[in-house]
Design goal:
Oligomer: heterodimer
Largest sheet of chain B: 5 strands, parallel
Number of strands of chain B: 39
Largest interface: A-B, 40 and 28 residues
Radius of gyration of chain A: 13 Å
Strand content of chain B: 15-25%
Structural class of chain B: alpha/beta
Number of helices of chain A: 1
Order of helices and strands of chain A: HEEEEEEEEEE
């Protein structure tokens, strides 16, 4: 509860959400919040990305998709989303908002302040 | 310093190669393009519609000059390349332009063959090859009452003649032989074609040999061998094309009919590649667009140093680009003593079809009037499919039996623009046609990506391919010779499966390394397939890779549109008890399951379960005695049964117990696609066993076994495999069939298309006729079952894969 309050009070600050090993390689985990879930993806080479857990197509949970290279395939209709930009892979168009995420040692730190560039946060 | 790539020939094949190269490696080369024509790159196969006034030049441009600038490509238009200094690797064009190269692509295309006739150099005597020819024709057509003579009654000549006719000219077609398009049509089809072209107003002079073209400065008439003359303001020579090897010959490259290239599209100078109509590959030259595109893809692969693609030649088919005349031809449609002919002729409907078979495989086909099944015949021909199982229906076309969402209305050309083609994604004909022309799409994959048509259930794929053919015009041929598993690899499903066994590849990374995967960790398409192939090849050894499974199989439940899941417990043979029903009812209430539904496979579906609740609900189901029903997997699904002789007055055997026994033997098995069974207690077949992957129908003397059926997108009734006497035999044949399918089918290929591909007789040989092989299959199946009959629900209720079902963090 304390951490949750901290997150709400200080949007934009880094929030410790867990350990790197909690997220499977080529997989994702979800940070659940009332304003909409955030998916944290871990690629094969241990890069981390965080996106709003909502496909721009029909709102599918991207966290449940298959991670390959720097993309994730939405589980509902197989739209591909670039993890590093949140943009749908052309010719599809749309985006999922990005959130800053980084690694501090083994800890995964997430900011709840979405980055610019995607109209729907 | 980037390497330098020079392309000579700004046409479709050369530019397609550049585009393919930019797709896979945009950075490797500085690219320079020389084009003899004064404009950007355009779609040459659309010249006929331009001539016919159905399209404008602007509509057929593929890449305008801005595109070249945007991709940092230096474009020299209107510059003919005069020489190439191969020692200094320098291209010299007119106007004194020079360009050095590290790699060179020759794509000089072809030239119309001009018969060396007296008067052949007069004004108004032209070929039909480029925009300039079209402009000359349009100019000639501008004068009222103009008369045109087209020499050549082949594909190109007839398209030219039809175009000039629609521009208001009087057109005569002169043909040396007694039959039009003799390379593509047999006598009957050629006769039908001639008849309908005559009705449009074309005149034909058959078996006429042109002797001279007459005139002073400009053409005035054409004279024939028999002395007759006809007046002409324009003469179009369309007797054929010749690969343009002028430049290649001049610089000393080995040429025969065309520039000779290897399977990697390299000429005898390994720094020089050649693609397109100027090329001769394994003795063949090609003038159609699909082979050129295949060549382009392979050539780009080598230019990008991937070095793994090979071009192995193309099968081609032909359609005539004359609006309102449907004509299709492919392969050897004449045949010989060893071939058989199937014929369908319906004169009042204007329909003619001929299919030539050799050993029950299609060698060639000619169609006139209704060509909707052309793509189907072509596919059967390309795959070498044994058609004996459906020979009697072959001529009537791909049975549209239950082709969901379309009924039998498949006449694409006649459809209104508002007609829905793709029922899954709501895409209309007009949208697809617009996307093809506006976005310059050439392949099914591109249409899928841009419009989503045919990208879901795939039942409209044939319609979309037909639309592509119609919109692009004739020589679009639908399918490449070999289909790699996905874009990550050059290898086909079969090649990959064979390599896994032969090389004893036992992990995904080993397969990807050995077969030179182009991506670091594959894509959803290949990872799911590889995971299955490895699991099937190395039971007990291969470690199932959760991250290479689609969400449903990863979490052992079906994802729904709102992100919730559905849960279907197994009910052996579709039989249940009051105690089981009570347990399900209590569990459904405890977890507030919003919808409880009975499935088509005689199971109970609990819909709308939250993901976090899955392990809990499974624990409760497990304690009540249930295991996973695998309703979410490419796996053995259900065995549907009727009540059989225990209750039914018609029942001949105990079908319910048979179903239960089968299900207990095969549950838990992973398969290329879902696998459903049914057992009926008598030939009334209440369990609908004849539309299942494996169907059993009890008869008084024992059991009939049926295979390869399915409901769904395209209903297919089963083929009869054999009849057996005992329950043990039913189990033995079932296990053998299932294992054969597991070991041989492509991932995501159901038994119905699999059997159509390999042929029922192939299956029978391995299961019915070869006792030893059948028993070996059973043995391998039972061995693999040791490792797969572990209830995934119980394990997860006890904590396995905990991370899948819980958020990493809960806020607020």
């Amino acid at each position: 509860m304390q951490q949750a309050e901290q997150a709400l009070n200080a949007a934009g600050e880094w929030l410790d959400v867990g350990r790197l090993e909690d997220i499977p390689r080529q997989g994702a985990r979800v940070v659940r919040r009332t304003e909409g879930d955030i998916a944290i993806f871990r690629t094969l080479d241990d890069q981390l990305f965080a996106l709003r857990d909502r496909c721009p197509h029909k709102g599918g949970p991207l966290s449940q998709g298959m991670v390959h290279g720097l993309q994730v395939a939405c589980p509902l209709h197989d739209w591909k989303i670039h993890l590093d930009s949140g943009q749908a892979v052309a010719p599809d168009a749309g985006c999922a908002a990005r959130f800053p995420v980084r690694l501090d040692g083994e800890r995964v730190l997430l900011s709840l302040l979405p980055e610019e560039g995607c109209p729907e946060r | 310093m980037k390497e330098k790539l020079v392309l000579i020939g700004n046409g479709m094949a050369g530019m397609r190669t550049v585009e393919e190269l930019l797709k896979i490696d945009p950075q490797q080369y500085d690219i320079t393009v020389f084009g003899a024509e004064p404009c950007g790159n355009y779609n040459r196969i659309m010249l006929s519609p331009v001539l016919a006034g159905e399209k404008t030049i602007d509509q057929i441009m593929l890449n305008d000059e801005a595109w070249y600038a945007e991709h940092n490509i230096t474009l020299h238009t209107g510059r003919e390349v005069l020489d190439i200094d191969r020692a200094r690797r320098l291209v010299k064009a007119d106007g004194g332009i020079e360009a050095g190269y590290d790699r060179l692509i020759l794509a000089t295309g072809s030239r119309p063959f001009m018969i060396p006739l007296p008067g052949g150099d007069l004004d108004g005597v032209i070929g039909f090859r480029d925009i300039q020819d079209v402009n000359l024709m349009l100019a000639a057509a501008g004068k009222p009452g103009g008369k045109a003579v087209v020499i050549g009654g082949g594909l190109l000549g007839l398209e030219a003649a039809n175009g000039l006719l629609s521009q208001g000219m009087q057109v005569s077609v002169v043909h040396l032989l007694d039959r039009l398009m003799e390379r593509q049509l047999d006598e009957t089809a050629a006769g039908l074609l001639k008849f309908s072209l005559e009705r449009r107003g074309l005149q034909f002079l058959m078996e006429a040999q042109t002797e001279a073209i007459l005139g002073q400065q400009r053409v005035e008439a054409v004279r024939f061998r028999d002395g007759t003359e006809i007046p002409a303001d324009l003469v179009v020579m369309a007797v054929g094309i010749r690969p343009n090897v002028e430049l290649a010959t001049r610089i000393g490259l080995h040429c025969e009919r065309g520039v000779v290239v290897s399977d990697t599209l390299q000429t005898y100078d390994p720094r020089i590649y050649a693609v397109g109509e100027c090329v001769q590959h394994r003795g063949q030259t090609y003038g159609l667009v699909a082979p050129l595109f295949e060549q382009a893809r392979v050539c780009a692969n080598h230019l990008a140093r991937h070095g793994i693609a090979r071009y192995e030649g193309s099968l081609t088919s032909t359609k005539l680009k004359v609006t309102g005349i449907d004509l299709f031809s492919a392969g050897d449609f004449i045949g010989d003593e060893q071939t058989e002919e199937l014929l369908l002729q319906d004169s009042s409907r204007g329909i003619y079809r001929k299919v030539v078979l050799r050993d029950n495989r299609i060698q060639g086909a000619v169609m006139y009037g209704d060509t909707i099944d052309g793509t189907w015949y072509f596919e059967l021909m390309r795959d070498g499919t044994d058609v004996s199982a459906f020979r009697e229906n072959l001529l009537f076309g791909q049975a549209h039996l239950g082709d969901s969402g379309h009924g039998d209305d498949n006449r694409v050309a006649a459809m209104a623009d508002s007609a829905e083609i793709c029922g899954c994604n709501g895409v209309c004909k007009g949208e697809i046609v617009r996307a093809i022309s506006d976005k310059k799409l050439f392949t099914l994959e591109e249409v899928r990506a841009h419009t989503k048509a045919s990208s879901s259930c795939g039942s409209c794929t044939g319609l979309v391919e037909t639309l592509l053919a119609h919109t692009l015009g004739g020589d679009y041929s639908a399918t490449p010779n070999r289909k790699p598993l996905c874009a990550c690899s050059e290898y086909t499903h079969d090649e990959i499966r064979a390599a896994i066994l032969k090389q004893e590849l036992k992990s995904m990374s080993a397969v990807q390394r050995f077969l030179e995967w182009k991506t670091s960790d594959g894509c959803p398409k290949c990872r799911t397939a590889l995971n299955y192939y490895l699991l099937c090849a190395w039971p007990g050894e291969y470690q199932d890779d959760n991250q290479s499974r689609f969400i449903n199989e990863r979490v052992h439940a079906n994802i729904q549109k709102d992100g919730s899941y559905s849960v279907v417990p197994r009910m052996w043979g579709g039989e249940t008890t009051p105690a089981e029903l009570r347990a399900i009812a209590e569990i459904a209430e405890k977890y507030r399951v919003p919808t409880v539904h009975v499935t088509g496979g005689q199971r109970i579906d609990l819909l709308g379960v939250k993901k976090d609740d899955l392990p809990g609900i499974w624990g409760d189901l497990s304690r009540a005695g249930f295991v996973s029903g695998h309703a979410y997997g490419k796996a053995v699904r259900t065995v549907k049964t009727c009540v059989g002789k225990d209750w039914c007055r018609f029942g001949t055997q105990d079908s319910t117990q048979m179903g239960i026994d089968l299900e207990k033997m095969i549950w838990g098995s992973w398969t290329p696609h879902k696998f459903k069974l049914a057992v009926s207690g008598c030939p009334r077949n209440c369990a609908e066993a004849t539309i299942k992957d494996f169907g059993v129908v009890a008869v008084d003397s024992g059991w009939e076994l049926h295979v390869g059926g399915n409901g769904g997108v395209k209903v297919r009734a089963t083929d009869f495999l054999c009849a057996v006497r005992t329950e043990d035999e039913v189990k033995e044949y079932c296990a053998a069939f299932l294992q054969l399918y597991r070991e041989n089918a492509h991932y995501l290929e159901r038994t119905a298309p699999w059997i159509e591909r390999v042929g029922l007789s192939w299956v029978k040989q391995r299961i019915v006729e070869d006792d030893e092989n059948r028993r070996a299959l059973v043995e391998r199946f039972l061995y693999s079952q040791q490792f797969s009959q572990v209830d995934p629900w119980k394990a997860r209720a006890e904590g396995l894969d905990h991370h899948e079902y819980t958020p990493i963090k809960q806020l607020g």
